[in-house]
TrEMBL record:
Pfam families: Dabb (PF07876). This is Dabb family protein. SMART domains: Dabb. SUPFAM superfamilies: Dimeric alpha+beta barrel. The lineage of its organism: Bacteria, Pseudomonadati, Bacteroidota, Cytophagia, Cytophagales. Coiled coil: none annotated. It comes from the Bacteria. It comes from Flectobacillus rivi. Residues 35-130 form the Stress-response A/B barrel domain.
Length: 133
């Protein structure tokens, strides 16, 4: 009887120890603060499908910057509520591991070349940057 109780105790103790070992490292590590860079472009010629396609082509090439973890190129959705901004032509949303990775992107030759080659297409750009809390 004593062996069975001891074995049960050891099994439960090992399980509790394993749970603690799994939980502690994630709490001990600093939390990664994902950085989102969201850009909205208003084209000089908003009715030009060719200009929109050219900008999308440029953004597709820009997605090759290695610090970008995920990218999304979009156009205004068909949703229609008073709080929704639909005046832009194209949006460009990027996810980075942290602010430092986004700063590398800003100075990267691919990004600088994109601005040089495509900035003639837009009349206005608004950027929303957000850091995970």
């Amino acid at each position: 009887m004593k062996k069975l109780e001891r074995r049960s105790f050891l099994t439960k103790a090992a399980a509790a120890s394993a749970l603690t070992a799994v939980a502690l490292p994630s709490e001990a590590k600093p939390k990664k603060k994902i950085f989102i860079h969201h850009v909205y472009f208003w084209l000089k010629n908003p009715s030009s499908e060719a200009d929109k396609n050219k900008l999308i082509e440029g953004l597709t090439g820009l997605s090759k910057v290695p610090t970008i973890r995920f990218h999304h190129i979009g156009t205004p959705a068909s949703t229609n509520r008073s709080v929704i901004e639909r005046g832009y032509s194209v949006s460009w949303m990027l996810f980075f591991d942290n602010l430092e990775e986004e700063e590398i992107y800003q100075k990267h030759p691919i990004h600088l070349k994109f601005v040089e080659d495509y900035s003639h297409l837009w009349e206005k750009v608004i950027v929303y940057d957000a850091e995970q809390i």
